Recover the amino acids of this structure.
C-alpha cells in the first residue's frame, strides 16, 4: 500500500488541481510538494485558526478515504504546512464568495507570484521558499503586496492584520460576491 503521506498529498493536490484552460498534462507537483514541506507559521492572533483549519484537513482526508487512525497518531503531530493552510483557507474563501475553492487557491498563488511554476517550467525551489518566507514572516509591504491579498489602498498595515480580515478587505476592494 502507498504510504499515508503520499495518499494525503495526492488528496490535497486533487482538491486544487486546476489547469485553468491549459493543457491537462500540466503538473504542479514540484510546487505543491514544496509548499507541503514548508511549515505554516502564524504570527498574528487569529491566524492560529488558519493552522488549525489546515490540520483539520487530515481528519477530512481520513474520513473521505475510509482510513481509521487515532486522533493522536503521528499523522496529526506534524505542524500545518503552507499547502494545507492554503487549501483549507481556499475552502473558507469559497464559502464566503461566489468563487470556487480551486479558484481561490490559484488566486492566492497568483498573488504570491507562484501560479506559473508548473513542472514544465524550471521550478526554482529557492524562489518558492523565499516567496513563501515573505508571506509567512509578513515581510510584504503595508498594502499586502507580496502576501496573499494585495490591496490598492488600505488604511491598515496588512502586516498587522489577521489573514481572514486581509481576505475580507481584498474581496471588498475587488468586488467579489
Amino acid at each position: 500500500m502507498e504510504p499515508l503521506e503520499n495518499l494525503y498529498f495526492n488528496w490535497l493536490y486533487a482538491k486544487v488541481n486546476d489547469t485553468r484552460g491549459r493543457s491537462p498534462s500540466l503538473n504542479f507537483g514540484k510546487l505543491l510538494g514544496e509548499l507541503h514541506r514548508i511549515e505554516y507559521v502564524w504570527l498574528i492572533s487569529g491566524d492560529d485558526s488558519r493552522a488549525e483549519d489546515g490540520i483539520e484537513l487530515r481528519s477530512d482526508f481520513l474520513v473521505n478515504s475510509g482510513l481509521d487512525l487515532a486522533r493522536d497518531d503521528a499523522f496529526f503531530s506534524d505542524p500545518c504546512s503552507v499547502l494545507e493552510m492554503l487549501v483549507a483557507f481556499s475552502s473558507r474563501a469559497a464559502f464566503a464568495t461566489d468563487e470556487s475553492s480551486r479558484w481561490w487557491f490559484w488566486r492566492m498563488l497568483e498573488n504570491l507570484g507562484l501560479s506559473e511554476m508548473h513542472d514544465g517550467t524550471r521550478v526554482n525551489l529557492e524562489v518558492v521558499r523565499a516567496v513563501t518566507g515573505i508571506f509567512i514572516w509578513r515581510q510584504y509591504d503595508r498594502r499586502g503586496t507580496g502576501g496573499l491579498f494585495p490591496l490598492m489602498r488600505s488604511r491598515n498595515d496588512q502586516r498587522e492584520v489577521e489573514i481572514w480580515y486581509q481576505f475580507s478587505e481584498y474581496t471588498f476592494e475587488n468586488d467579489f460576491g
Summary: The chain has a mean pLDDT of 91. The helical segments are 4-16, 29-37, 48-65, 82-96, 101-112, 125-136, 163-173. The chain has seven helices and no strands. The chain has one domain: 4-17+26-139.
